[in-house]
Amino acid sequence: HELERGNLETGSGARYELLSVLPVEAVVMTSLGYDHPHKLGEKQWQRTLEKGGAMRTQKPFFSVEPSQESAQIIHSLAHHLKTPVYWLTSQEQETLQERIKHHSFPPEALLQGHHQRINAALGAKVIHYFYPEISLDALIQSWKPVTLAGRFEEIEPHVFMDVAHNSDKIKSFISQVQSRFADRKKTFIIGLSHERSPENVFQPLLEIADKIYIADIHRMGVSAQFIAQELKKINKRNIPLIIEPNPVNALARAKSERRKDELIFLTGSLYLIDQALNPDPYLKNLNATHGWRKM
Length: 295
Description:
- The chain has helices at residues 37-40, 44-52, 68-81, 90-100, 114-130, 136-143, 167-181, 198-206, 224-232, 247-256, 270-277, 281-289; strands at residues 27-29, 61-64, 85-88, 153-156, 159-161, 185-190, 211-214, 241-243, 262-267.
- By secondary structure, the protein is of the alpha/beta class.
């Protein structure tokens, strides 16, 4: 494709990532949020150490400026590897936000989301490092038509899906929901995987939802019954929490009961979305049972 540079995304964490054997020109870490704690550690410093393992000797490292504790760990790693560190500042984020005001975007554009705008500002910083002649406005113009499947995607009228699967991404997703549909009724279909805490992940949903359907996930799923029990403890608005184990049935029921002004959102796990929407029964089965045969 005649590319000069490309991006390769690591798996969860990076200290033991197979991609580390490849030569790189820079390392970019988009965030140090509460993600994959069962693999990367419950403590922020543990996750910082794991993700910071992507650093390479004397290659620039870019990231959003983290907490003081995480910044100290990153700088310690960088000192050991003689790696220059470039933090995305709040001023750079504000500059992007201000420039975006001069552009119009379609509703489905990736840059409609607040979290994605932070990532865009970080991407712009990296691009400017290698190509200082490219202006920020030119980058924004090129990003206008960009969409990402599964990120606030309207799959049919009044029905959206978003692959937000941890507390940070759910908060960003909710922010986008409210910015676009603050005055609309909202029903959510949720599921959870990988031993994540329902209370930590879904608490923001309880603040804006009018109804929540809770489904089971076959692969590494948190049971719908347990999710309902945990959310009931913090359900101060007493919104309906409905257990519908089958994701297909949960979506069908939500659609059949949808009122005229109501919107439906599927979120919490990519496995939930796959089981609810995948039309191919063979792929759906493979995705739901991957890893069942232990080697």
